[in-house]
Amino acid sequence: MLEDGLQLVVEQLAERLGRSVIVDDPALRPLAVSAQLGQVDQSRIDAVLQRRTSDPIRAMITEHGLSQARGPVRIPANAELGTLPRLAIPLVDKGYHVGYLWLIDDPALTEEQVGEAVTCAAEVGGLLGERLAQETEETESTRRLVDDLLRPDAGVRERAAERMRDVLDGTAPYVVGVVRAPGDLRRLAGDVRRRAGRRTVVCGSARTELVLITRESRRDLVVRALRSAAPGSVIGLRGGVGSLGLVRDAGADARYAAEVAEAVTTFDGLADWADLGPYAAFQHLARTADGLERLCPGVSALWDGSHEMYESTIRAYLDHGANAQKTATALHIHRTTLYWRLANAERLLGLDLARGDDRLRLHMALTFADLVPIRHLSHGAAPDPDDRPSRHATPSA
Predict the structure, then answer these.
(1) Is residue 245 within 8 Å of residue 158, measured between CB atoms?
(2) Nearest to 212 by CA among 237, 233, 240
(3) How many CB atoms lie within 10 A of CB 368?
(4) Mean pLDDT for all residues in the chain
(5) 226-252, pLDDT tens digit by residue?
(6) Same fold, 2-134 and 289-376
(7) How far apart are CA 188 and CA 80, in angstroms?
(8) Does residue 388 register a pLDDT over 80?
(9) Is residue 390 within 8 Å of 339, Cβ to Cβ?
(10) Which of 75-84, 269-278, 349-358 is predicted with the least confidence, judged by mean pLDDT?
(11) Chain segment 77-128, per-residue pLDDT in tens
(12) Cα–Cα dist 252/307, whole Å
């Protein structure tokens, strides 16, 4: 295997030079580490244990132009970061950076030793290039299978499901995920597969979103890999998928969960279709102003300029079970002010908040509005001039 060949080359170089050797991928994650020989600092230990390079070390490396280098780069010790001097050799294959080979440069490496390390780096670069080509071919094949699982043609889906069973380690139930993240989604797919295990998760449709399939038992592992690889990503999940032939429908559910996770801040960028609560009711309703009006005709007026105060008041009132005292306390206003606002809102919407049906329709519309762009049409408008308590009202609490 390529991994075994890479480890052997690294161990042999470390033995010849009498010091530790580490090989990183282009994202500065360790791919091969020799036994500890010679001096070692805490940053080296941390990189091996955590499988990543810390941000301060990355910044120091960037300052020395390593990402543009084609030959060895000596990086001096940094007392503030507690690092020893290092020799970094970019690993290049067919003109592309495929990683880095690192050596502790204390005592300083001789010219002969540097030459030996450069020769070894060329061999390692070839191995990593071969590994990358193999992964790319495998990834493209898997991506096509995932795409076929999402197609409308049932025959295409069934054939893809048969082939996918040999690719994905394990059997049902499965989890399907839809991921929205900035940057190169193909690179993200490879990153997640490396972090979670190549046969643990398959990825496809890396165009505007990433589609993932994994076993239910590997769900948390894959989510952690995603969070680490793309901290700003939005993830929608659909678990309990009984067969790979059902990936298409599950993907639609996961995509909707991702939409909810992106729109509703309480989900913190991660939503499971089974845990959407009231938002589950809106999956097949057009997430537009027209869809909002179907739930409660006239409700769009709440976002028309000066009426936004009524939207927040009614939302609080309904969220507190139409309990005026609890609502007034939550809004830090007097109950008389609350009643005045509610009366104005009723006139505006043509509803009677004493009627259960009207409250239900309005509450559903307000919940659905979290997913509709109409929420962003107006902000910071002045309150309605009619929204003032009577002269007999007690001042706001």
Answers:
(1) yes
(2) 237
(3) 21
(4) 86
(5) 998 888 899 999 999 999 999 999 999
(6) no
(7) 33
(8) no
(9) no
(10) 75-84
(11) 988 888 889 999 999 888 878 889 999 898 999 999 999 999 999 999 988 8
(12) 35
For the chain, the domains span 2-134, 150-282, 289-376
| Pairwise CA distance, residues 351 & 334, whole Å | 23
pLDDT for 159-169, tens place per residue? 999 999 888 87
What per-residue confidence (pLDDT) applies to 374?
66
Other beta carbons within 10 angstroms of residue 55's beta carbon come to: 8
Question: How would you write the chain as a 3-class SS string?
Answer: CHHHHHHHHHHHHHHHHCCCEEEECCCCCEEEECCCCCCCCHHHHHHHHHCCCCHHHHHHHHHCCHHHCCCCEEECCECCCCECCEEEEEEEECCEEEEEEEEECCCCCCHHHHHHHHHHHHHHHHHHHHHHHHHHHHHHHHHHHHHHHCCCCHHHHHHHHHHHCCCCCCCCCEEEEEEECCCCHHHHHHHHHHHHCCCCEEEECECCEEEEEEEHHHHHHHHHHHHHHCCCCEEEEEEEECCHHHHHHHHHHHHHHHHHHHHCHHHCCEEEHHHCHHHHHHCCCCCCHHHHHHHCCCHHHHHCHHHHHHHHHHHHHHHCCCCHHHHHHHHCCCHHHHHHHHHHHHHHHCCCCCCHHHHHHHHHHHHHHHHCHHHHCCCCCCCCCCCCCCCCCCCCC
Produce one character per residue of 236-273: b if its CB has 16 or more CB atoms within 10 Å, e if not: bbbbebeebbbbbebbbbbbbbbbbbbbbeebebbbbb
**Bigger pLDDT: 177 vs 93:** 177
CATH fold label, 150-282: Alpha-Beta Plaits (3.30.70)
According to CATH, the superfamily of the domain at 2-134 is GAF domain (3.30.450.40)
Report cis status (omega within 30 of 0) of the bond before 173: yes
Mean pLDDT of 130-159: 85
Which class does domain 289-376 fall in?
A: mainly alpha
Whole-angstrom distance, CA of residue 202 vs CA of residue 169 = 10
Look at residue 128 in the predicted model and tell me its pLDDT: 86
pLDDT confidence of residue 103: 93
Q: Which amino acid is at 366?
A: L
Smallest CA-to-CA distance from 57 within 17, 33, 92, 24 is with 24
Q: Phi first, then psi: give them for residue 92, nearest 5 degrees.
A: -125, 135
